[in-house]
Design goal:
67% of the residues lie in helices and 0% in strands. With 191 residues, the chain is mainly alpha-helical. The protein is elongated, with a radius of gyration of 19 Å.
């Protein structure tokens, strides 16, 4: 049994907590209105805080987007860990991967501006969420009896926010069409 480590960091001051909430609320509205083109100046002005206050907590716009997106990603992670099948444990790897794809498409559809702000380019691979998604997909690949270390990243590539944006807003593909295409990709785990 592991000992629980005590959190020795000082509690967040009430004014700091209020500023954090104002920043996140303003950021949510700005990302919804403007997409990923939000600047730190935009955020500070909309939140009614000084730039120094903003930069003390968040070094860049991507870190604000990550903080906002984190809540939604944690809910999906919890479903993968302990939710009902097929998303949660108990389903075959192919079914779980297909359910994961569907859930991720829903997440991207609802929060695409945040995902674009948080996961542009190589930053996608440095977020904790990507590590979690990769571990989940790798476990499905292993459970399907496939031994290919490159496959998890390949299976996650279609979920890159830039790819989803291109499919939905440039190619004008319907959500159902994207989900059906990803369902066909999941079939690799049943071969």
């Amino acid at each position: 049994m592991r000992k629980k480590l005590l959190d020795t960091s000082p509690p967040e001051r009430a004014d700091a907590a209020a500023n954090r909430q104002r920043i996140l609320t303003a950021a949510g509205q700005l990302f919804a209105e403007q997409g990923p083109g939000v600047t730190m100046s935009d955020l500070a002005a909309a939140a009614g805080v000084g730039r120094g206050t903003l930069y003390r907590r968040y070094p860049d716009v991507a870190s604000v987007a990550v903080a906002l997106l984190d809540e939604h990603e944690q809910a999906l992670q919890q479903q993968l860990l302990s939710g009902p099948p097929p998303l949660g444990p108990g389903a075959e790897p192919r079914e779980r991967l297909a359910a994961f794809y569907s859930a991720m498409v829903d997440l991207l559809e609802q929060h695409l501006p945040l995902a674009l702000g948080a996961e542009l380019g190589a930053t996608r691979f440095t977020t904790g969420a990507y590590g979690f998604w990769r571990t989940f997909v790798a476990s499905q690949v292993r459970d399907a009896g496939i031994h290919d270390d490159a496959l998890p990243d390949t299976l996650l590539a279609p979920l890159a926010p830039e790819v989803y944006h291109y499919q939905r807003h440039v190619q004008k593909r319907a959500v159902i069409d994207i989900k059906q295409a990803l369902d066909r990709v999941a079939n690799i785990l049943s071969q």
